[in-house]
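Handout, section B. The chain below has 186 residues.
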Amino acid sequence: MDFEKFQTVLEAGKYSKDERIWFPKTYSRFREFLVERELLPGDVNRGVVILFLQQIKANGTPAWQRLQAVQAIAAYHAEVLQRPIADLESVMTTLSRLAGQSRQLGIDAPLSANETAGLVGHIDPDEPAILQRVRREARVSGLLRRTELAYVGWIKRFLIEHAQTPAGEKSGDEKSGDRASFWVLD
């Protein structure tokens, strides 16, 4: 798989520790964008990258993260596909300038409680605390909605599967399964 090759290339050398962490995450988000539009990595050009950047900007992604996204996309296409995308340097230069301005103005400072609440949106207060926290963290981190739903689903299934009775018995009996579903199911 090309994505595994990307990880290998990142580990091999010229990329910083932060780039090795963020580039795969950022490129995964870009791949989802491509799949939604039924595009292949070979179809990517400057216009497709700019559409992606516009989408993540609309979601509130700051300039420095958009710059990182372009760098990740450029690295993947140059290193893995051996097909560099033409004319991305001007996009990176512009985003670099914007990121610097944002940093000087303090725009990318940590969010206040009110800003975080606006970003998180509604979370069911009747839901177990662990699921509320997972939803909050996923939303603040900018994860896709379907990623949040997958995490919540995994946790619900885990809790149901591993629910314990007061005597410490496994959840094979009906009582513990009923109790688990009471705590985790909507």
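Note. The chain has nine helices and no strands. Compare this with the example in section A.
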